[in-house]
Amino acid sequence: MTEPAFLPRRWPLVPTLLVALAVLIMVALGVWQLQRKGEKEALIALYERNRAMSATVAYPALAPVPDAMLFRKSSVTCLEPVRWLPRSGAAREGGSGIRMIADCRTGAEGPGALVDMGIADDFTPPAWKGGTVQGTIVPGPEQPSLIERLTGRAVPARPMLVADTPAPGLRASAVPSGADVPNNHLAYAVQWFLFAAIAVVIYILALRRRLQR
To answer: Long-range contacts for 150-155 (Cβ within 8 Å, ≥24 apart)?
Structure first.
């Protein structure tokens, strides 16, 4: 196979093709991140509209939760807390502490429900024994990792209800909003485009150095 006329005979064709392929892949990844940015902005706008709605929806029985239900008002009846899942969190009125999340039994036929009952100052579970809780549906704390998503082993995350009224002795937890959803896709796109430009510059410099020999 003869090399193209615009390449010097001393410069191998294979490295040129590899560099071109790598640059094309990086540019394609940058374009994909720009598309993801638009999708994420639309999703955040949907979450903000959901937060503005006053009507309640039925608490989702199974995961995954449709985006149209996240950040909506709902209620669930906790027959009893099976276990408590302490997590760091912020109080609605300011300050931080330990977010007390009850993994509740909702009935023999149900999968249970996660309920954020408020912020404590330590890891001691509250004396709350269950009841009907009204609040806001948010993504649960047990989100699949990036590796699990990439390998197809991700289990749909359970939703969680952040209680409007905390359990006795606790402070109300801050309710997440759509604005808290990370949207770093523009930065990722710029990074991929920058990587592509650097690869081109390095290749040109290497080519010039080779020609000067």
So the answer is: 155/63
pLDDT at 158 over 60: yes
Q: Return the structure tokens found at 24.
A: 């094309």
In angstroms, the CA 200 to CA 19 distance is 8
Cβ count near 72 (within 10 Å)? 23
CA distance 131 to 103: 13
Do residues 111 and 62 lie in contact, with contact meaning Cβ atoms separated by under 8 Å? Answer: yes
pLDDT, position 40 = 85
Q: Among 82, 87, 81, which Cα is nearest to 167's? A: 81
What is the pLDDT, as a whole number, of residue 146?
A: 62
Q: What is the pLDDT of residues 107-119, one digit of tens each?
A: 866 678 999 999 9
**Helix 185-211 × helix 13-52 angle, to 10°:** 170
